[in-house]
Amino acid sequence: MAVDGNHGSDGAESLAEPGSSESLTSNMDQRPDHGEDTYVGSGRLADRAAVVTGGDSGIGRAVALAFAREGADVLIAYLPTEQADAEDTVALIEQAGRAAVAVPADLRDESACNAVIDRAVAEFGRIDILVNNAAYQMGQPGGIEDITSEQWDQVMRTNLYAMFWLCKAAIPHMASGSSIINTSSVQASSPSPQLLDYATTKAGIVNFTRGLAQDLAGRGIRVNSVAPGPIWTPLIPATMTPDKVAAFGEETPMGRAGQPVEVAHAFVFLASAEASYITGEVIGVTGGLPVPA
């Protein structure tokens, strides 16, 4: 993935740490493909109301764009420091002719999660689709010895606690036919030592998804997960060492990193009526890396 521009010592692209106002899509030399020029909708989510966390960039932006082009109104939640990216995503949603709501929030706090759901209900009157996509990672080459308690807590609260709080707040506003989609990862089943904390949360997301799916099946609410492999987003050059960035995606059978738009199609499918008999499942979008059932 090495490109000219903002480089690490070996020429690989690098960004400031996540949460920084400099860790933005606009600061990337090699911009991710969110489907801006390629995604064509066909009304599969007509007049649905969706909430997408981490919707300002990366997979979240691609999902928000795809949902809008499929006919959904979309609320995105994002860190306040990522306002510029959020504004770009809002523009894409509005260009698709749908309502866009942008809510800055630090989802490590339960009250912030509740506020996101309250705003969605105030704007849309209901929630048809909840996408728990916001995540934090920070690769540590030394593995567990380099992972601080502060980092462990940040990863757990961002990736697991927020999902729990958002689901709990949203479910009372979701009718039969609604859908919850949680972003897990190939890391859930094939953990990298330098991402031990992140991989632990992603495995937890898979189990949470399967358990919640059983809990809500009788109410007609489907719960599924998408497990991406190596996908090129701002999180990668912001959290990985230059050597990892330079080789990012080369370990897949397809020999490359994926683009956010290539993941968005799986979210659209799971949110749509086409997946009406699918719940408790994990769909891998990994370039050929195995995701066990």
Q: What's the main sheet like?
A: 7 strands, parallel
Instruction: Pick out the low-confidence regions.
Output: 1-11
Number of domains: 1
Strand content: 5-15%
Please bin the fraction of helical residues. 25-40%
Give the CATH superfamily: NAD(P)-binding Rossmann-like Domain
Number of helices: 8
Please give the radius of gyration in angstroms: 18 Å
Overall mean pLDDT score?
93
Which series of helices and strands comes N to C?
A: EHEHEHEHEHEHHHE
Layout: helices, strands, pairs:
Elements: E1 49-53, H1 58-69, E2 73-78, H2 83-95, E3 100-104, H3 110-124, E4 129-132, H4 149-170, E5 179-183, H5 196-216, E6 222-228, H6 235-239, H7 242-246, H8 260-271, E7 282-285
Parallel strand pairs: 1-2, 1-4, 2-3, 4-5, 5-6, 6-7
Structure commentary:
Helix content is 36%, strand content 12%. The protein has a single domain, classed as 3-Layer(aba) Sandwich (Rossmann fold), CATH 3.40.50.720. The chain has eight helices and seven strands; from the N terminus they run E-H-E-H-E-H-E-H-E-H-E-H-H-H-E. The protein is globular and about 45 Å long. Mean pLDDT is 93; it is low at 1-11. It has a seven-stranded parallel sheet, with helices on both faces. The protein is of the alpha/beta class. It has helices at residues 58-69, 83-95, 110-124, 149-170, 196-216, 235-239, 242-246, 260-271, and strands at residues 49-53, 73-78, 100-104, 129-132, 179-183, 222-228, 282-285.
